[in-house]
Amino acid sequence: MCIFCKIVNGEIPNNTILENEEFLSFYDINPAAKIHALIIPKKHYESFDDIQPELMANMTKFIHEVAQKLNVREDGYRLITNIKEHGGQEVPHLHFHLLAGEYVGRLVGNKK
Ligand code: AMP
Q1: What are φ and ψ of residue 45, in 5° steps?
Q2: Closest ligand 1 atom, residue 36 Cα
Q3: In the prediction, which pLDDT does 111 show?
Q4: What is the pLDDT of residues 15-32, one digit of tens each?
Q5: Of 64, 86, 95, 97, catalytic
Q6: Could you give the residue ranges of the DSSP H alpha helices within the chain?
Q7: Does a structural domain hold residue 86?
Q8: What is the C-alpha to C-alpha distance for residues 6 and 8, in angstroms, rounded to an integer?
């Protein structure tokens, strides 16, 4: 069983931000910004590349709720999902990183 499935079933503790029947959000153990949340579906999918588009409708709504709870919607945030080996994915369970709480720099385009 993957590490995020173990978090979902309570075998590994987590610092929960928000959850519902389908999704869970918790703080990343190794934060890359002042606020670093992870958002996962409770059901196991290896990556963004392995889901049906319909999942993203509910997941988008849930991510908005997490951003609301963290109070970052006004100042903004970055969402990242790493996909498989070339995408730098380490945990093979679909997750979005939500980085916020400060200016998090630019990954593509002109540097500010
Ligand atoms: P990725 O490289 O996109 O697969 O990201 C995996 C993320 O999971 C990393 O940012 C890790 O710090 C984070 N992580 C791994 N184990 C845990 C854990 N037990 N609790 C919270 N975050 C974790």
Answers
A1: -130, 140
A2: 10
A3: 66
A4: 999 999 999 999 999 999
A5: 95
A6: 3-8, 53-69, 84-87
A7: no
A8: 5
